[in-house]
Amino acid sequence: MIHTTDYVLTDEVRVRDLVREHGWASLVSVTDDGPVVSHLPVLLADDVRLPSGAGPAGPAAAPRPARDARGLPDRFATPAAPLTLLSHLGRPDELLHQVDGTREHLLVVEGPYGYVSPGWYGYSPAVPTWNYVAVHLYGTVELLDAEDSYAVMGATVDRYEAPMPEPVTMPDVEGYARRIAPGAVGIRMHVTRYQAKAKLSQDKPREVAERVAVALEHDPHYAHPGLAAAMRAELARRPTDG
Q1: 193-203 mean pLDDT
Q2: CA distance 54 to 147
Q3: Are the CB atoms for 152 and 135 separated by under 8 Å?
Q4: What's the rounded Cα separation, in Å, for the pair 97 and 185?
């Protein structure tokens, strides 16, 4: 992700909230056959009770160097508290990703993102950009047994059915759910490092960022209320001017 330090997000509460609120992710693996990507919903393990219990602790995060081999400042943060994610893969994706508990995988979670027109800034010259919130999570992945896998799928259904007027739960379709469940397998990811960015016009004066937020609330072509809300929350975190 962009290296600009203004956008670095190291607040783990915000990182966890991003996963909770925008849990559609891309799992990326560099395998012996080349890169493999799957798209899947993810949950925080802290929010799910598995039949087998909490599960084993992941590998300890290694200390981060101040600079990498190219002399660039280290881009990654290490979780201050264990950060574990749960999901499920449709078979045979677990084979394609070569999930073995030792290989490092990357999980990308995106929050709100959208186009920002230079016409919203109120000055010229200016160029367009995109604002966004995203986190790249790195760690090892292990496969879950059948009952834990089923529990993860049930928790995923509960998470996304909760706002519906008549939520459907796994017990409501138990027979059918049990028949098709073997077509997927649960996974647990232990995060050992991450890189998160919230690019929300922090490099612009407050009045410019305010104009961008208003445009994102009302523009007929590029309105994005979720991104506007993220910008307003970021503005609230800014030091008081003057």
Answers
A1: 97
A2: 13
A3: no
A4: 13
Pick from 226, 154, 158, 216: which is nearest to 184 by CA? 154
Tokens 């009045």 correspond to 207
Residues facing residue 116 across a β-bridge: 129
Q: b vs e for 110-127, b when ≥16 Cβ sit within 10 Å of the residue's Cβ?
A: ebbbbebbeebbeeeeee
Q: What is the DSSP letter of 162?
A: T
C-alpha span between 136 and 66 (Å, rounded): 19
Which tokens is 175 given? 């027979």
SS3 192: strand
- What's at 132, amino acid-wise? Y
Q: Give the predicted TM-score (pTM) of the model.
A: 0.94
Residue 34's identity, in one-letter code, is G
Query: CA-based angle 201:16:138, to the nearest 5?
Result: 90
pLDDT tens digit string along 77-86? 999 999 999 9
Longest CA span, the chain: 64
Q: What is the per-residue DSSP string for 37-74?
A: EEEEE-EEGGG---TT-S----PPPPPPPSB-TTSPBP
Question: From CA 202, how far away is CA 188, in angstroms rounded?
Answer: 35
92 prior amide bond cis, ω within 30: yes
C-alpha span between 20 and 80 (Å, rounded): 18
Chain mean position to CA 110: 5
